[in-house]
Amino acid sequence: MQKPPVPEDEAQRLAALEQTGLLDTPPEQRFDRITRVAQSLFGVEIVLVSLVAESIQWFKSRQGLDACETGRDISFCGHAILGDSTLVVEDASQDPRFSDNPLVTGAPFIRFYAGAPLRAPGGYRIGTLCLIDSAPRQFGTAELALLRDLADLVEQEVASQDVSRQLARAELAERRLASVIKGTHIGTWEWNVQTGEAIFNERWAEIIGYTLSELEPITIETWLSRAHPDDLKVSGEALEEHFQGKADYYDVVCRMKHRDGHWVWVHDRGQVLSWTEDGKPRWMAGTHADVTAEVAARDALKTREQQYRSLVDNIPGVTYRCLLDEHWTMLYMSDKVDPLSGYPPSDFINNAVRSYQSVIHPEDRAHCDQEVNRALAAGKPWQIEYRVMHRDGTVRWAEERGSPVWGDAGNVLYLDGFILDITEQKQAADLVSYQRALYETILEGSLAGYWDWSLAEGTEYLSPTFKRMFGYGDEEMENSPEAWQKIVFSEDLPRILANFDAHVNSRGREPFDQEVRYHHRNGATVWVRCTGRVIEWDGEGRPVRMVGSHVDITQSKSDQKLLQGLFELSPIGIGLNDFATGAFVDANAALLASAGYTKEEFLKLSYWQLTPAEYEPQELIQLESLKATGRYGPFEKEYIRKDGSRYPVLLNGMLVQDNAGRQLIWSIIQDISERKRVERLQNEFISTVSHELRTPLTAIRGSLGLLQSGATGGLPETADNMVALAAKNCERLSLLINDLLDMEKLLAGKMQFDFEEVPLSMLLSAAVAETEHYATQYGVKLVLEQPAQDAQVRVDKARFQQVMANLISNAVKFSPPDGVVRIAGSSGARRVCVAVQDQGPGIPDVFRGRIFQKFAQADASDSKSKGGTGLGLAITKELVEQMAGRVDFESQPGQGTTFFVWLPLAGIQEVMQ
Amino acid sequence: MSELTRVLYVEDEPDIREVAKLALEAVGGLTVHVCEGGQQALEQAEAFAPEMILLDVMMPGMDGPSTLKALRELPALAGVPVAFMTAKVQPHEIEHFKSLGAVGVIPKPFDPMTLADTVRSLWSGAP
Residue A838: which of A889, A767, A872 has the closest Cα? Predict the structure, then answer.
């Protein structure tokens, strides 16, 4: 048997066959009619319209055969399609190509076969119209022609089948397209690239808010004029690429101006449909889709995405997923757990190294469990604060928010949450509440109120004392700036606000410090000193937080009035000066009266203008003292009156600060004109007395002396005695006056001392020499014992001689006749000692305490016999002490007396007690 | 050197003036011209032509130092030694008087018996 060979154009042939759309379709009358006609016309058993497909032949129409198909390899038709002419096999059993063919040897026992090829459009032979019979037969030319005619009819039917199919397809496609265009609201356009002619559909116009008729006449300009200028460039480039074949489509998203003025985003897509002969684009068609919503959605999505990303990136806390077990076994944990705990998340996940529970502060664990379980029971999320023990040993505060993820069975699958490191906030908050508590403790003690104003939030904490000051309980006054503004004196409010502005504008350099009045609940006025400062500023220099205190100064205000009264009424001058400039800030009436100025004039002056230039050095010394100790004086100087005259003042004062921190000097400026006058009078009195008393005495003594000398001639003996008596008493009176004046001067501090350094030995020799004559009169011997080692002493020679004369004359007077008075000097490391020792009766015990007092003589009767004024030892003591020395005595009744004078060595600064 | 003979004594107190004059003349053998005050001294001094002048310090009108100053203005008397007689005899006061041009100070009350000797010794010590 011979298999039919495959024709050379098999692929195209199969495509043409497929194109007919006949394969596997039901039988049709138009084909069956032809095969029935052929069956009866030719009188054959079987007539088929057989289509030769790739591996089978399939019968579109068949007469006399039940099978629809047979294999191509055993087909007769496979041979028939190889040529244009009809294949005739008169007896297959005799034909070597078919004799062993199963269709020949078996049913339907083919002997006769005649097949005319069927050509599809394009000339491809797709099958045959064939006649088959089981008896061999002859097939003549006429019969061949008849069969060809019938085959042509079949070909015609095949061709018509193709046309109707295409028509149906086209209709379907158009319907589909129309519905798609309508359904998708697509605008369409056609454009003659060469002429600019354009055709748009209604939707095209609608997208930008017009009807098509409103846009007439429509040209490409209609589009160009409404496209966004920025997008024309993109559009032009896309078009050029498409024209050059670089892009299959022209495809851009561009903006068009809507009739209302807004921009509409349009997805513009098109393709060249036809070209000119010289290869330029001619017609182009495409679509417009309104994608404004999509673009907006995309933009929104992009924004949201960015927001989310930045949110996630910036989450400062730890996100986690864990199991509800005692360890809080972590399934997931973000990296941020590292800074919080000091351990990486991998440590915690599945409790690889440690459990999260293990880093929670032991004291907080139970609380955490409890809170989470409570939240779970209530079906709510939880928020807990606890401490985390960081690897570095510190303790961190964590705030955790979490919620459970429930399984279908109502069980907790796991817990999801978020842990924030709030250590800093916590510390800050702790600090704030700690500070607040501290301030309150301190301020409560001082009965001062405290306020803490959060300017950004508009809240203001007012301490209980603040409120109590005005008669309100803590609950009775809300914590807000409005609360105090309601009770402050309205006339004081502008001043407070101005001060606040100045404080803020100077960035806190200008102090906020005010004395303001409040209405007490009971109607009374409360004076308050309100001080404060901004303690927190934001990045733009605005105040964020301001704190301050309220001190009730109502009492001190009334004290102030009292003091003001004292100040004004004080008979002593009081002045207040600016430390920096010396300018008078205030002065009381007494000061003004002394200086002769009005207050107005005076407050324009500085104390320097009142001080004579020669006092400047002293003034500067006082200023130094003021700086060093905060006080100055007392010191005396003069002030210049308005009329240019001077008056003496005694000044002392202190440094103070006013509320604004300015340094001021309070001075008591005492006008001491009167005291000075009295002092002058006293001096004059002493001078006068000394002159007035001595003048007559000089005359008396001189006269008596002349009488006694006989210069005026001889006197009778009794008269001579009288004159001697008068002379002796005159002498005593003279001494008494001298002593009185000395005493007066000593006590008044008017005694002048002319100190010089002299050897002790020289002083003693002089003292003995001066008193020797006197001692001789009493028959007393003076014995001088010079110091073993001589020493320099710093004394007033004359005053020292006065001391020695007093002591020696006393010793002589109380010595028995032929007695010895011993004068002994000695020197030590720091001082010298002079002893005057007599052999007299000694000093009675009862008198010892009074011996250095004025006019104290042991025995009143003695004074007469011994002579003396009773002032000698008092003066001696004063003189010695004013020369930095000390005097004392030793005496035993009946065994004499020794007086000692100690004096410091020259160069030793010490006062002996 | 010649002997001191002529002494001008200026003293406002008549009793003292009397005693001193007597002491200087009777005891000391000096020729004494007394004046009651500075003004009188200025008027009479040149005529008397003293070799030594004694001035009381405290006097009404012109006091001792003023008188000294005025006398010094008189060319004839410019070189005559002057001593003060005063109760103010503290050392610094003595220095003060000397600084005014006095040769010395004679303290009051004075001893009439030695007054002339004191005056003579001051005169002798004068430059």
Answer: A889
